Amino acid sequence: MARAEIEGGVIAHPVPVTAGAEVNIKYNGLLAASGADAVYLHYGYGPADHWADVADLPMHRTSDGFEASIKVKSNDRLNFCFKDSANNWDNNSGKDWSYTIHSGRKP
């Protein structure tokens, strides 16, 4: 499986993101560069303007920044952004980060 490095210091692995599978998200963006002591993955499913099943997950500090893994619980779009313990946000300049979730079946 591939890994995707996307803008803002974010890496997702594996891609494509598949329903029922685990996806690992690494973050070394604005909050990490600003010295955040803790970073949380804020994620949900659905269209960009109406997330469902929204959750916050503490990320673990690594030598590459921060990292967390989630099990993909939906067949809808995965959306995410990041916040630190002081409630500062990195939402990719208002665009968030987003992946289409695949069924895992070949067409």
Automatic annotation (TrEMBL):
InterPro entries in the record: CBM25 (IPR005085), Ig-like_fold (IPR013783)
A Pfam short name: CBM53
Boundaries of every Carbohydrate binding module family domain copy: 20-102
Region (Disordered) residue spans: 87-107
Gene Ontology terms for molecular function: starch binding
UniProt name for this protein: Carbohydrate-binding family 25 protein
Upper taxonomic lineage: Bacteria, Bacillati, Bacillota, Clostridia, Eubacteriales
